[in-house]
Amino acid sequence: MSAIADAASSAPARETVRVALGERAxxxxxxxxxxxxxxxxAAALGARAVALVTDDTVAELHAEAVRNGVAAAGLRxxxxxxxxxxxxxxxxTLARVCDAILxxxxxxxxxxxxxxxxxxxxxxGFAAAIVRRGVRFVQMPTTLLAQVDSSVGGKTGINSAHGxxxxxxxxxxxxxLADTALLDTxxxxxxxxxxxxxxxxxxxxxxxxxxxCEANGAAVLAGGPERERAVAHSCRxxxxxxxxxxxxxxxxxxxxxxxxxxxxxxxxxxxxxxxLVHGEAVAAGLALAFxxxxxxxxxxxxxxxxxxxxxxxxxxxxxxxxxxxxxPDPERLLDAMAQDKKVVAGQLxxxxxxxxxxxxxxxxxxxxxxxxxxxxECAGGGR
Amino acid sequence: MSAIADAASSAPARETVRVALGERAxxxxxxxxxxxxxxxxAAALGARAVALVTDDTVAELHAEAVRNGVAAAGLRxxxxxxxxxxxxxxxxTLARVCDAILxxxxxxxxxxxxxxxxxxxxxxGFAAAIVRRGVRFVQMPTTLLAQVDSSVGGKTGINSAHGxxxxxxxxxxxxxLADTALLDTxxxxxxxxxxxxxxxxxxxxxxxxxxxCEANGAAVLAGGPERERAVAHSCRxxxxxxxxxxxxxxxxxxxxxxxxxxxxxxxxxxxxxxxLVHGEAVAAGLALAFxxxxxxxxxxxxxxxxxxxxxxxxxxxxxxxxxxxxxPDPERLLDAMAQDKKVVAGQLxxxxxxxxxxxxxxxxxxxxxxxxxxxxECAGGGR
Lengths: 383, 383
Fold this sequence. Notes:
The structure is a homodimer. By secondary structure, chain A is of the alpha/beta class.
């Protein structure tokens, strides 16, 4: 709480990224201390009440400060707290959050405020999308991963027994407040996991940014101005893609680089954070996507090695063997991939690469090639 | 009407109403026997598979024929059956339907087909809105009420403990197939209930249609070409309003004529169909809205009496006393209204009328006047 107030009083450097979506356009405000502005900004959006959705962990750290800030701006503000962890992206918790928002008599002019990581943002954003057939919401991401990825772009949802994020809505926030001071409470593992999504933007279409990451990755993790720069650059990259293709009918799928592998790994691990967290699965998924591209002759093996080298240097996993407690098996991985939502007419779609910063959507990838690749990786022969 | 003239030819009489919503535009096809075209039309929409959502009652009557028709067109088609009744518009049934659609591997190009009344349409449409963040769906309404109201316009949703339809989405169907032959299996009570929504279109803004109803209402209920004409006219009326205001930011609220009262009655009756069904509550709500308008000096008492007379002549309820087992109480009714979703900034919004065919949105209606009116109605002094 004091960190938020102190940072705000010193008027720190900040950056605003606009997500250009016509009448659904919104700002991402990035900087140390921006959380202290939540009340004033909610009032400026015309809200009279705010349902503040958060999880147990964040509730202890930041929720009271944010609630007090909103109340100080003259708005009614009440908490809805869910258990921390992926398990909250469930039908049951969604129902509880929707009912809690309704119990707070949040109306169409009011706001749901998602204060937390990707789980809280996805869950609260989805609840906002469906309560009264849509109320507005504000994202206040508290993890690096949420600040650079999940809080931007309007994808919301929960998990089904059939897979991750299979039930949800496109519902853009009215504002994203990414307070980088809140990242100071993160453990190193969470920071690293979020960093994997930052690296992804370089790999998709920005070789210069990947090179910047190679030079500055350690500084991003250690904190300091490189971190704000990386968050802002990532948000700009994501905003540009989302503005081109809000509903993932084309280019937006590029953001799934590494994610077909990552989701399969998460399914095999039953989303157990003692085995892996999302960003770690993405790191391995990025390495796998490049090695698969190399195996298919699409990119130079040296590019795959370069990707792997940088991720490993950051302490991120790059192989199936990196996850203690996971028993990777080609057929089980393939099954898990086939249930991912990027299946179109029964064929597998991957994001592959012709090199660093040169990724593309590869539709109808031959299942036999995937099987060969996975068998090699499961046998530890990928490197 | 040209479609009525077509009845003379060998082809079955049918009429197509276009809902003009730009890239979300779709057709409502009305006529005897159009259900038989479900397979060909699903194939024409490019679907490879159809999840056919229905309820126990409709499953016995029509579901196999529709499924066989879809399968005969070369599409994979499986049933998802939910219990009949309002109780299925619940979080738990929604979760079950979403999981069943996912289990059938329905992809973005495929279809959910809602075969049933308003409950099935609202539930299956909402499931389609959120599975994979939106798959397409087709409405095949099997009740008169669904054919003239709920299947058109894209409002989908479920009920919460806090009220009816408080959780949902705007999700337009890709097609509505209103087979009037399916209405032959309805009991008279269900037909009458649907008829209340037909009368509503006349009362909103079409005095000539209300006069047509006065002359032809009995024929609509008895069956014959008047029924198709009434369904088509109602769909055109609703389509015109929805095209003007898809997300109920203005005019569309006119469709709620009678519904603030109706929803309150339904809440008081705990949605128990042995006390009332939706269309009956709407009939009473229409009469109440006109009597309230008369009490406020907005419309002539003779107009309120005329509305009441036609509804009563059709066998529909027009007073709070008409519902055996309901104990109407002014404060409980007011509480129920205050939780309805048409509350904006704490004030009550009603649809009121200056006469037959001359309804308007009345914002900020004085709660004291509502209380006085309800006290009079509860005391049986409304007529």
